[in-house]
Design goal:
This protein is an all-alpha fold and 223 residues long. It has three domains: 57 residues, Serine Threonine Protein Phosphatase 5, Tetratricopeptide repeat, CATH 1.25.40; 93 residues, Serine Threonine Protein Phosphatase 5, Tetratricopeptide repeat (Alpha Horseshoe), CATH 1.25.40; 68 residues, Alpha Horseshoe (Serine Threonine Protein Phosphatase 5, Tetratricopeptide repeat). Helices cover 55% and strands 0% of the residues. The chain contains 14 helices and no strands. Helix 3 runs antiparallel to helix 4, helix 7 packs antiparallel against helix 8 and helix 11 runs antiparallel to helix 12. It is globular.
Length: 223
Amino acid sequence: MATIFELIKAGDSAGLRELLAAEPQRAREHSAQGLSALLFSLYFGEPGMAEMLRPCCEPDLPESAALGETERVAQLLESTPEGQDARSPDGFSVLQLACYFGHPETARLLIRHGADIEAVSDNAMQIRPLHAAAAADNNEAIAALLEAGADPDAVQQHGFVALHACAQNGNAVGLKLLLEHGADVRLRNAEGKSAADFAAEAGHSELAEALRAALAEAESAGA
């Protein structure tokens, strides 16, 4: 029989339902990397599977943040010292998880509880909450982080910044928020690509043109 993680990777909802009906305790298994089946399903873009697993689990703080269960996160914060900076087994903070999986209300709660808005992931990606929010086009979380003082120019792996992510995704609203909070349009990644380059490569021609104009203006002012 396939393992619970094999079923999730295959997107086999019927197989997972059958497994949980026979052995609901299997929902609490962890992968070789330490990830719970619930987090594993979210990482593989299977929120429906996460919903199937949820009744069989008692999600911890990282899982609850990834699910966007704001009330449960609030309850766990009350009973977990320093819980606002808890990490998943693969090194992501609860705030990063809330931002990446599209839960701005949960992110705002964590910020209010003192979560580190500049926490760097404990892995090679070196992402911060702002990078996670930008990658997911979570503009409400982007705004909340910037208003809380997050560095708009923080650099992750390979010199990638939030501005690059928004440009690549065609996220004009996110770009506007970042630029209004002082993001430097001149920043380039390790390969020398600017936000304008990322927008152009992704086919966002109008956005690329606007970013080229902003880049030319910024370089002229800085000359």
